[in-house]
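Checklist before submission:
- one chain only
- standard amino acids only
- sequence pasted in full

Submission:
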Amino acid sequence: MFKTGILYCGYVLLFMGRIVMLPLFFLSGLVPRRKNLWVFGSWGGHRFADNAAAYFLYCQQHATGVDLVWISREHDIVTGLRAAGYQAHHLWSVAGAWACLHASVHYFDCFAKDTNFWLSRGAIKVCLWSGVPLKVFERDIDIPSSRYYRLFHGYVIERVVLAMMMPWHVQRPDWLIALSAETRDITARAFDVPKERVLITGFPRNDRFAGTAPVATGLQQELPQPMREAVAAGRKVFLYLPTYRDSGRPYTRIDWQHLDELMKRLDATFFYKFHPMDHSTHTQKFSHIFWIPRDRDVYDLLPNIDALISDYSSIIFDFMLLERPIIFYTPDLAEFLSDCRALNFQPDEIATTPLCNSYPELVQRMETIARDDEKGDPARNDEVRQRLHRYRDGHASQRIFDALGERLGADCSNAKAEPINSTADRT
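Returned file contents:
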């Protein structure tokens, strides 16, 4: 009862704070905005990662005459970016607030709170989105108990209160990006924006797989030492990335002791990373199993991975571009569908090999991959990749820049990417 009272008081105070901040949001729309100032942010301001970070680095080389500023809530991110020679500010510092208030464009991965929602009215908002819509999201969420469902489909009073609490969810971005026509349609529906406002460009974070992404001078993170050692020794490297469960329950169905012994026998190393929103903890230590910090950007790790293990995570779509084995480990599929969001794509609809519905099946599949006996179906692999990736050439950032740069104030005279409205697949 005491904890419930504390939680209730917290919500009341938060709601009152929103009432105070909303006038600031409306006043921010009266401030003239500089066409040659853009701000960027990611994951609520807590990470330098994903599409926003990749596009920020691309713009450093191509957005002629534009001031580019990264906005963050984390002082170590600001410090690191400044040390690498980039402009970065804390969102409520004087310089950060000034940049957000005067920037003509806010680029972000999820919502305008990635930069500073309260100072964003009147700016063009470009959502680079953090994942492929494997699971339904935003207005498509179908769980009545979810606050997001109630935000868009609840009673009027619920919608009003929740819109006050999470205003960045109800504000539609001006532009979004997608990987294909199918994912564009899903994204447009979920955000309730016209399809022509969702650009089929590919994701900037995946440009690195083709070797076309700019090098982030001074920002490269070293591979975790166990991964460096495994790669140097020629051992098979498995990476397990389960997605977040809406139920909030910690999730693993793995016999860790057996898995450690299996990795030793297969001369392999197993890495595991919790979803950033999953607050599970781990205490066990093994010789051939290693946990990766949840705030680590995994995209620079993927080129070193021999096989990805996941379930309903959008990273599956990204890893397809590397044309390496993907294990769909889905022992809780029925449970997931019963108390989590629905899926836009069923796992067996996009899997190119049979699903692993139990731990023994997972073991068998890892053994096959470790022996290099994986027998894939090239035609099926290409069919799925073509369905989900219109472009596979590593020029996603350039296509975004071509489409938006000139109208947003950048010099696009050197742009060479193909038009984004082409319906042909690109390899």
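Reviewer check: Residues 413-427 have pLDDT under 50 and may be disordered.
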